[in-house]
Each structure stands twice: as structure tokens, then as C-alpha cells.
Design a protein that fits this description.
By secondary structure, the chain is an alpha+beta fold. It folds into 2 domains: about 280 residues, 2-Layer Sandwich (Gyrase A, domain 2), CATH 3.30.1360.120; about 90 residues, Beta Barrel (Elongation Factor Tu (Ef-tu), domain 3), CATH 2.40.30. It has 8 helices and 20 strands. Helix 1 crosses helix 6.
């Protein structure tokens, strides 16, 4: 099976992520009807240790994390003093440590910056990305595939609901499994000792071959990306980034607590939230008239960076730009996208003109970021 790769990150430190294994349609279909195995060399891990790790991180990050119990996970932003987003983090509380997922390229700087704020706390923060590797399994049969390769678990997989994680054992290797439904289907993320990654990956592939009823196969990023846009999950470094404030991300409610104590950048976040002040924000836009039909076999898809204009004012000052887009199979091959849009135009139902493959097409702002949802994301 031939893999096609794409670079992720800046040219000087890019890593290669599989784009597709050559059959994008089948990879996407497996996400919706079976499951896919996705390697994630672009995702890194930071480890926080010490008795005060929870209270220390609570004073640094936007979410309340000092009340996390072992087995629980939570998302948070790490901000700079100006309130801009330096990293998007997912924290998993273990018995004696906390594992933090973020962009692999941000791990060294994030770990160092957090360590620099430690004074009297009994805590330490370390980038352990070289020792830990991450694989993901997405799709309705993900649990059944994983059940075919582990030898023991500290909790039934049926307990692995949203914002939870457990440990399993594969060939004597202890592996963390986190629930993360990025594609709108059941999503399991495995944190594996790096030197055991090939063993686990090969066992998953073998289980997929031995159990064709699970419709499991390896997948690249393109299929995952289509599914995550449909499911309404904007991502750091794609749809928002280091120049943005939390309120502009479109997911502030999932990352920020407005009742906890102080944290770095809080004054800016609290002030803008109290004033409902937001110059721009990530929104979801759909293009009903570009859906593939017998009468309309040719459609136009906007791409990252495509300019957006007020309806009827093409050529004037753009009011936003597309951040990521796809053709949605679940919506009948309709183009959809996330876009960073000026707040004056984010009212649901607002129609806009968007540049797409040399044409101007009309899009409509959605009420929510989610384009489609599955009825099968619980066990």
C-alpha cells in the first residue's frame, strides 16, 4: 500500500504526515462505516509532574484543570501576556502525572515557557515527544478493532466516554487511550512508547485484515480533514493561530472558564468577553448552490486563503478569508468551509460572495460550526 505524504510545519522543522494511501474515497468511507488508523507524527506530548502540577497549570491555562480526577481529560488554551493563543492543549490527568497533547513543533517552547513560571510550586514540565508517539483510530468500529489487540485494561472500554481516558496493555506495553471524537465518530487516541509504535500499528493492521467486517484500514490526513470539518472542529494552526484571541477561535466555550481564578492573559480575555467585543471569528459556511447534481456536475470549492466579500460588493475590501474547506460527502458533495470572518457578518443566514477556482460563489453562514453529526458516537 503506497503512502503519499505532505509536509507539516515550517520548512526548517517539517515532519511528514500521510496525505492518503491512494484511495481517498475508501478511507473516508471507512471513517463513516468502519474505522481508520491514523499515524500522528505531528502531535506531541508534554508531561507535567509534581504534587502541585494541577494548581500550577490551573494558574497558567484558560480552563479549570485543578479539579481533574485521574481518568479525566480537558482542553485549554495556553496564552501569552497579550491574550493571544500560543498553544491549544488537551490535558489528561493520570495518578501521578499529567500528559498534555499539543502540536509537536510547539512542545519544546511550551514546556520551557511553562517551566519558567514555576517558582515555589512542586511541579515540573517536560517535552516527552521523543519518548511518546500518538496513533488515532476513528470510526464506529474503532472500539471493536482495539479490543482485538489488547491483553488487559484497567477499565472497560465502555467507560471511555467524552473527556475520559484509560490504560490498556498490549504485549506487555502499557498504553494510554483517550476519547477524542475529532471526526464526529468514535475517536480513540493511543499514546504509545515510541519504541513500541510499530508493534502496535502492525497489530492494528493485522486485526483489520483478520476482521474484514470491521471495515478498518489505514488513512491519511485528507479523509480525516474532511470528516473533522463536517463534524465542526476548527483546529489550531489551520483555522486560527498565534495571532488570534480565544474569542476569535469559535470554540472559546470549550477552552475557557469564566469562573476560575487568574491565568496568563486573563485580563484581555475577560474584558473582551464582558464587552462582547470581537472583530472577527471562525464561522462555518456552506454552499448550497454548488452541490453536485445531474444538472450541475461541475462545482467550485474555495480553498485556504480564498477571499470573502459582502454580497454584491466583490472587489471591495474583503470581510474575511477561508481557513479550511472540503467537499462534504455527508451533505451530497456540497462544498463547505471554515472561515475567519468579520463579526458584522456572522449572523446565521448571512449570504456572502466567496472566491472559488476563479469564480465567485455564494455561501451562507451557519448557526453552528457543525455541518453534520452522527447518531452513533456513544457505545
Amino acid at each position: 500500500m503506497e503512502a503519499f505524504f505532505l509536509p507539516y510545519g515550517s520548512p526548517e522543522d517539517a515532519c511528514e504526515v500521510v496525505e492518503t494511501f491512494g484511495d481517498l474515497d475508501m478511507e473516508y468511507a471507512s471513517i463513516r462505516k468502519g474505522c481508520v488508523i491514523f499515524d500522528q507524527p505531528h502531535v506531541g506530548t508534554i508531561e507535567a509532574r509534581g504534587e502541585d502540577r494541577g494548581t500550577f497549570l490551573n494558574s497558567m491555562l484558560t480552563a479549570k484543570v485543578d479539579d481533574l480526577a485521574p481518568g479525566e481529560s480537558r482542553w485549554a488554551f495556553w496564552l501569552n501576556r497579550k491574550g493571544r493563543i500560543d498553544a491549544d492543549l488537551r490535558l489528561a490527568q493520570l495518578q501521578d502525572t499529567m500528559l498534555i497533547e499539543t502540536d509537536r513543533h510547539l512542545c519544546p517552547a511550551t514546556a520551557k515557557a511553562l517551566n519558567d513560571f514555576i517558582f515555589t510550586e512542586e511541579a515540573s514540565v517536560e517535552d516527552v515527544s521523543d519518548r511518546s508517539h500518538r496513533l488515532a483510530i476513528h470510526g464506529p468500529t474503532a472500539v471493536k478493532l482495539l479490543e482485538n489487540i489488547f491483553t488487559s485494561t484497567d477499565s472497560p472500554l465502555s467507560d471511555l466516554h467524552k473527556h475520559r481516558h484509560i490504560h490498556i496493555d498490549i504485549e506487555g506495553t502499557r498504553i494510554l487511550v483517550e476519547r477524542q471524537d475529532l471526526t464526529g465518530e468514535i475517536g480513540l487516541e493511543l499514546v504509545i512508547p515510541t519504541n513500541q509504535t510499530h508493534m502496535v500499528y502492525d497489530k492494528l493492521l493485522l486485526a483489520a485484515q483478520e476482521h474484514p467486517e470491521l471495515k478498518a484500514r489505514p488513512s491519511g490526513w485528507l479523509a480525516i480533514n474532511t470528516a473533522r470539518i463536517e463534524a465542526g472542529h476548527p483546529m489550531f494552526n489551520l483555522d486560527f493561530g498565534a495571532t488570534n484571541l480565544p474569542i476569535e477561535s469559535g470554540i472559546i466555550e470549550e477552552r475557557v472558564s469564566f469562573t476560575k481564578g487568574c491565568y496568563l492573559g486573563q485580563e484581555v480575555v475577560a474584558r473582551m468577553h464582558a464587552r462582547h467585543a470581537c472583530n472577527k471569528i471562525v464561522v462555518a459556511i456552506r454552499f448550497e448552490n454548488e452541490r453536485v447534481t445531474v444538472e450541475n456536475p461541475e462545482i467550485h470549492q474555495p480553498t485556504t486563503g480564498s477571499q470573502i466579500f459582502e454580497l454584491g460588493k466583490v472587489g471591495e475590501t474583503p470581510i474575511g478569508s477561508v481557513t479550511s474547506s472540503t467537499i462534504s460527502p455527508m451533505l451530497g458533495a456540497m462544498p463547505i468551509c471554515f472561515a475567519m470572518l468579520k463579526s458584522a457578518y456572522i449572523e446565521p443566514g448571512t449570504q456572502l460572495s466567496v472566491s472559488a477556482e476563479g469564480e465567485m460563489i455564494t455561501g451562507t453562514v451557519q448557526e453552528s460550526l457543525r455541518f453534520w453529526s452522527s447518531a452513533q458516537t456513544s457505545f
